[in-house]
Amino acid sequence: MEESQKGGKLIIFSAPSGSGKTTIVKHLLQHPELNLAFSISATSRAPRGEEKDGEHYYFLSARAFKDHIKAGDFLEWEEVYRDNFYGTLKSEVERLWAEGKNVIFDIDVAGGLRIKKKFPERTLAVFVKPPSVDELKRRLKKRKTESEDRINMRIAKASVELATAPQFDTIIKNYDLDTAKQEAYDLVANFIGLTQQAGKQENE
């Protein structure tokens, strides 16, 4: 997968867990004029709630994930916690490019920066910043999907991730979700070269 290879643009949304990046990405996917397709990440963690394999994630065992790492099948990967891997399969991006799509990622900070480094010319890397770490903790608790210990681990990780924000192309401050959605739309529309008219329609 070389920079010169034919294919669409890559649009990365990264943020600490609970910042609202997933909501923003879902909003953008509802706009057909952006020609976006979602890159499904692979993970070694178990499905949560109603998550489905091949729709929310590609769920792999830790052993299978490690085999893919050895084979060089990932564009990027990270061991977030012990034996808890996340990554982007090269085949996933190639599949979406073959469909003529721009690929959008909802991905952790380290992974987002790795992809940006590999495809600097065709990637827009956006960091979604929460109002505060306290607000982040409140949002994670409200989800009621994880233990207090896991939430505290996420908050500790968030502090480190927030320090990487300046390495991204742009930062969206998600203090008001509707404003953040509009800002994200305008950024992506501009990056893929959509006409001004399309941007006006979104505002109407």
Q: Please, could you describe this protein's structure?
A:
There is one protein chain. By secondary structure, the chain is of the alpha/beta class. It has a single domain (10-194), classed as Rossmann fold. It is built from 8 helices and 9 strands. It has helices spanning 21-29, 62-70, 90-98, 109-118, 133-143, 148-162, 177-191, 196-203; strands at 10-14, 36-38, 42-43, 58-59, 74-81, 84-89, 102-106, 123-129, 170-173. The strands form 2 sheets. A 5-stranded parallel β-sheet has the order 2-7-1-8-9, sandwiched between helices. A hairpin with a 2-residue loop joins strand 5 and strand 6. Helix 1 crosses helix 7 (177-191) and helix 5 (133-143) runs antiparallel to helix 6. It is globular, with a radius of gyration of 17 Å.
| SSE arrangement, N to C | EHEEEHEEHEHEHHEHH
The total beta strand count reads 9
Count of structural domains: 1
End-to-end Cα distance, whole Å, is: 39 Å
β-strand percent reads 15-25%
Task: Give the full name of the CATH homologous superfamily.
Answer: P-loop containing nucleotide triphosphate hydrolases
Q: What is the name of the CATH class?
A: Alpha Beta
Name the helicity range. Answer: 40-55%
Rounded to the nearest angstrom, the radius of gyration is 17 Å
Oligomeric form of this entry? Answer: single chain
Question: Mean of residue pLDDT?
Answer: 89
Determine the CATH topology. Rossmann fold
Q: What characteristic shape results from the CA principal axes?
A: globular
User: Which CATH architecture would you pick?
Assistant: 3-Layer(aba) Sandwich
Stretches where pLDDT is under 50 for at least 5 consecutive residues are: 197-204
Quickly count the helices.
8
The biggest beta sheet, please? 5 strands, parallel
